[in-house]
């Protein structure tokens, strides 16, 4: 069974690589695909990753294979362009990740003990990554925050930066101190709104968001997931408002805040979450 499954995986993978090569063929390929480059495809790569996350959040298991396929295509797309440019090909991509995963799991593929907590394994992972950067000569001094990708969504990058700093002891020991910091940052935001310019206002707003992310981390919550859930709840309740207004022969632009706010409370009372 395993052999047959692997054969199926390999055949489908090779077919996808071949399809991508055909789409990029200068003489017989698709003009749109031929015209693309790394920069033009990168936004689609990010979009497809978010669509995978969306399908998971909705538990849309019937949609997930398609979304994962779309994301896999992005990897093949970049590798095909790199092969054309003489940089690398998909075999190099797969070889690199295979080698990385084996090297970073000595407790699975080596002789290290598996008797470690997830926290210790995370610390070991970061230590191995730092050693890899030193070995590659990427930095004479490997900083604690090095390697946290700039292209991550801001909330996700914030929590990764905070986690890195926390591992070396730069963190509040208790949630109460984070809440105190939120109060402080909120007061500074009000001051900036009343007395300072737009640049200072944006800075203080960013500081408040950063501390809110830290609160989520201390509470064991994923800020990105929490905000997605809040977005979904807002959407469902606003849809309720629109539906109720429709029964009254109205659309939101015909209503006012008082009426819509009352319908919002009605949605909450009806259990719309």
Automatic annotation (TrEMBL):
An example molecular function term from Gene Ontology annotations: ATP diphosphatase activity
Pfam families: MazG, PRA-PH
EC number: 3.6.1.8
InterPro entries: MazG-like_dom (IPR004518), NTP-PPase_MazG-like_C (IPR048011), NTP-PPase_MazG-like_N (IPR048015), NTP_PyrPHydrolase_MazG (IPR011551), PRib-ATP_PPHydrolase-like (IPR021130)
Domain of life assignment: Bacteria
Swiss-Prot/TrEMBL keywords: Hydrolase
Keyword Hydrolase recorded: yes
Family of this protein: Belongs to the nucleoside triphosphate pyrophosphohydrolase family.
NCBIfam families xrefs: mazG (TIGR00444), PRK09562.1 (NF007113)
Name of protein: Nucleoside triphosphate pyrophosphohydrolase
Native source species: Thioclava dalianensis
């Amino acid at each position: 069974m395993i052999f047959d499954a692997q054969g199926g995986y390999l055949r489908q993978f090779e077919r996808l690589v071949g399809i991508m090569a055909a789409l990029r063929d200068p003489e017989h390929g698709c003009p749109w695909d031929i015209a693309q480059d790394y920069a033009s495809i990168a936004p689609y790569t990010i979009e497809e990753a978010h669509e995978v996350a969306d399908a998971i959040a909705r538990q849309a298991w019937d949609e997930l294979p398609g979304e994962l396929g779309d994301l896999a295509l992005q990897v093949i797309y970049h590798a095909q362009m790199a092969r054309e440019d003489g940089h690398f090909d998909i075999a190099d991509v797969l070889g690199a990740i295979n080698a990385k995963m084996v090297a970073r799991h000595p407790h699975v593929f080596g002789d290290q003990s598996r008797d470690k907590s997830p926290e210790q394994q995370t610390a070991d992972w970061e230590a191995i990554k730092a050693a890899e950067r030193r070995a590659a000569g990427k930095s004479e001094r490997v900083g604690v925050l090095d390697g946290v990708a700039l292209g991550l969504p801001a909330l996700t990058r914030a929590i990764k930066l905070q986690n890195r700093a926390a591992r070396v002891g730069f963190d509040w020991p208790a949630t109460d101190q984070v809440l105190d910091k939120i109060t402080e940052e909120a007061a500074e935001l009000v001051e900036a709104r009343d007395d300072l310019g737009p640049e200072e206002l944006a800075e203080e707003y960013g500081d408040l968001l950063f501390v809110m992310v830290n609160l989520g981390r201390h509470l064991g919550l994923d800020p990105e997931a929490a905000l997605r859930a809040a977005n979904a709840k807002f959407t469902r309740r606003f849809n309720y408002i629109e539906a109720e207004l429709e029964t009254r022969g109205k659309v939101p632009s015909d209503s006012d805040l008082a009426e819509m706010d009352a319908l919002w409370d009605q949605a909450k009372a009806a259990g719309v979450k």
